[in-house]
């Protein structure tokens, strides 16, 4: 199978391509414009793999939550590529790829939670457990106020987070000994999880392929 993935829920967007089991990866620099870089980078990956982009059969998209702009760009790019190449589309939450990446390589842990600072006095989290090769959703990506963290978030579950996520929850590394990693999803993991979903459930309906926004977009006026 020939399949690719786009992941742009964070500033460091990434792409991945698999051709008959061989994986090719590309990280986009956070200082670059993803809107202009994604398609050329995918073309470069296809060139490395000695294929034409029209040979793509499946295109997987990380739906977030995360960057408003990055997710919009990736979604529009995926829809355009699908129309141009005929590739079938699959969308998955980026948190699920993070959970899969951890649980698949740490079978002694049955559960994991993703915790991110959502800014504006909020945080976003999700909770998964390992089940038959895929993360089972115990709590989908959800946004809560930082004040509710101590009441809502489960304790004693390995955390995929960073210093900002811990601070938003009002925790410290000394409080939460099971901090196990950061929160930068990779296109390669998105691709592997998406292909597993595709094999089990088929493509995602186009009308369901939407960025996973947990809060309303608030435009900012730049100082001139």
What is this entry, summarized?
By secondary structure, the protein is α/β, with parallel strands linked by helices. The protein is built from 6 helices and 10 strands; from the N terminus they run βββαβαβαβββαβαβα.
Notes on the protein architecture:
The protein is an alpha/beta fold and 224 residues long. The chain folds into two domains: 2-93 and 185-208, Nucleotidyltransferase, domain 5 (2-Layer Sandwich), CATH 3.30.420.40; 96-181, ATPase, nucleotide binding domain (Nucleotidyltransferase, domain 5), CATH 3.30.420.40. Helices cover 32% and strands 29% of the residues. The protein has helices at residues 34-48, 68-85, 94-105, 149-152, 163-169, 187-201, and strands at residues 2-7, 14-19, 22-27, 58-62, 88-92, 111-119, 122-131, 134-145, 159-160, 179-181. It has a five-stranded mixed sheet with strand order 3-2-1-4-5, with helices on both faces. It has a five-stranded mixed sheet with strand order 8-7-6-9-10. Strand 6 and strand 7 (122-131) form a beta hairpin. Helix 1 (34-48) crosses helix 2 and helix 3 packs across helix 6 (187-201). The protein starts with a strand and ends in a 23-residue tail after the last helix. The mean pLDDT is 89.
- In the CATH classification, which architecture of the largest domain applies? 2-Layer Sandwich
Shape: globular
- The CATH superfamily of the largest domain turns out to be ATPase, nucleotide binding domain
- Counting structural domains, the number is 2
